[in-house]
Amino acid sequence: MPGKINYTPNTESDIKLMLKEIGVNSIADILIDIPEELLCKQINIPSGISEMELKHSLKSLSDKNASLNKYTSYLGAGAYEHFIPSVVDHLSSRGEFYTCYTPYQPEVSQGTLQGIYEFQSMMCELLAMDVANASMYDGASALAEAAVLAIRYKQKKNILVSKTVHPEYREVLSTYLQELDVNLIEIEMEDGVTSVSNLEARIDNNTACVLIQTPNFFGYLEETEELVGLTHKNEALFVACVNPMSLGIIKPPGEYGADIAVGDIQALGNYVNYGGPHAGFFAAGKEFMRKMPGRFAGATTDTKGRRAFTLTLQTREQHIRRAKATSNICTNQQLLALRTCIYLSTLGKAGMIDVGNLNIHKSHYAMARLCEFVGIEPLFDKPFFNEFAIRFSGNCKIQDINKGLFEAGIIGGLDLSRFYPDIDNAMLLCVTETKTKEDIDNLASAVANII
Fold first, then answer.
1. Backbone angles phi, psi at 311, to 5 degrees
2. At 373, is the pLDDT very low, low, confident or very high (cuts 50, 70, 90)?
3. Among residues 447, 410, 367, which one has the least CA distance to residue 75?
4. How far apart are CA 187 and CA 165, in angstroms?
5. What are the residues whose beta carbons fall under 8 Å from the beta carbon of 59, sequence distance 6 or more?
6. On the CB side of 262, how many CA atoms lie within 13 Å of its CA?
7. Would the pTM count as exceeding 0.85?
8. First vs last Cα of the chain: how many Å apart?
9. Cβ within 8 Å of residue 312, ≥6 positions away
10. Is the distance from CB of 264 to CB of 138 less than 8 angstroms?
11. What is the pLDDT of residues 28-81, one digit of tens each?
12. Residue pLDDT, tens place only, 330-372
């Protein structure tokens, strides 16, 4: 056959070749960022043991992990623990759906395509937007794709992003834009939210879009309508990155004038696991429909006049031809999007409102309980959803507090100095509907004992 390459796999030589290509000498060099105490040098499993013995041995190893089944966690910062009805696991694990890949053959994929179509419809209703895609890799890449769309649509070079947007989202955004001839400009924050005055000073007629997260990384609600007005006044697009769990009780992006709404659906029916997997959503006004990244499922009729579903609006070739593609991410997180679809169907409108209110009330109760103690105070004085930041006075170190909490069976909050070096002795905590009053009181007592 012309052009055929004779290739005989050689695992050891292939590995050496790949290691040389990326500039390292061994597999160990790739794992250098993992702390030595966390590395497992070898798993000692005797040969010839039975399946029952093997499962028992592996379970004893897994039991050493600090799972959410054994610890009460108040760690959020982008990955959130929510109650997931058992029907979500039951339906999403059926063989017909158990894939993350988008189907190309509609004649054999009607169930999956309908699942995508229903997901898109639910996200449009939740976000109050005109059109949504079939999901994206995660919330961070969805935000970056929104910036790329704005650059192409507006033909302008300045991207403004608030410092209250998740720091890891901003890192992904920077990576996406590093080879483009654009300027990524950060907007300062003031009392835990975006500084309107700083935005006003930085925005101009060369701004393609303004990227705002609300509730933001600290859990606080941004002054969205004022920010949208200022953005549109300068003929730029407004991109809202939102926590979809909050939208049962907080005004959705479409109602305050956002042009594009993005975020992560991990909170809607998907587990925290070890920080993933995640899936992003991307919704926009109808004028951006043809420029949006990702997949779209549409409703149509077949040759016999029956309702049917198919991929629409763009061809597969559009994603293969990199130079002309709206995005070079060619697939979607279908399985996680399906779980979100089942979750939203199970809760319904009333359920989303109830869960949102539980998150509001329990997180505010936790804040109040913790701030009863001398030496603890709110880091910012702003309305928040289910995350908030507190500051410890004196010589209390967040690392020591979290160590003490862990010994008490509690996973504490995030040390904010990890992402904001100028914020010291402050912790970001998340309280969802999964926490009881007793859990929150135990947290307060444990913190009091430590400090």
1. -70, 145
2. very high
3. 410
4. 10
5. none
6. 29
7. yes
8. 74
9. 296, 297, 298, 300
10. yes
11. 888 888 888 878 777 788 888 999 999 998 888 888 888 898 999 999 999 999
12. 667 889 999 999 999 999 999 999 999 999 999 999 999 999 9
Residue type, 437: K
Q: Concatenated DSSP letters for 360-409?
A: HHHHHHHHHHHTTSTTEEES--S-BSSEEEEEE-TT--HHHHHHHHHHTT
Which amino acid does the sequence have at 330?
C
- Residue 360: alpha-carbon gap to chain centroid: 20
Helix (H, G, I), strand (E, B) or coil at 264: strand
Q: What are the structure tokens assigned to 349, written together?
A: 């409108």
* Residues with Cβ within 8 Å of residue 112, at least 6 apart in sequence: 96, 97, 99, 103, 334, 338
Q: Where are the beta strands (DSSP E) in 136-252?
A: 158-162, 183-187, 189-190, 193-194, 207-213, 237-242
What's the whole-number mean pLDDT along residues 1-27? 71
Tokens 């070890």: give the residue: 274
Partners of 187 in beta bridges: 162
Q: Which two tokens stand for residue 103?
A: 């189907």
**Other CB atoms within 10 A of residue 128 CB:** 16
Q: What are the residues facing 429 on neighbouring strands?
A: 388
CA 171 to chain centre: 13
| H/E run at residue 262 | strand 260-264
Copy the structure tokens of residue 373.
Answer: 């103690």
HSE, CB side, 13 Å, CA atoms: give it for residue 154. 26
Q: Given phi > 0 = left and psi -120 to 50 = alpha, else beta, which region is 285?
A: beta
Give dist(CA 221, CA 246) in Å, integer.
Answer: 10
Across the chain, mean pLDDT equals 91
370 close to 389: Cβ distance less than 8 angstroms: no
Beta-carbon contacts of residue 353 (< 8 Å; ≥ 6 apart): 248, 249
Q: What separation in angstroms does the CA of 147 have from each of 217, 262, 274? A: 19, 11, 28
Contact predicate 221/215, CB 8 Å: yes
Q: Per-residue pLDDT tens for 158-174?
A: 999 999 999 999 999 99
| 211 contacts 161 by C-beta, under 8 angstroms | yes
d(CA 265, CA 244): 7
10 Å Cβ neighbour count for 365?
A: 16
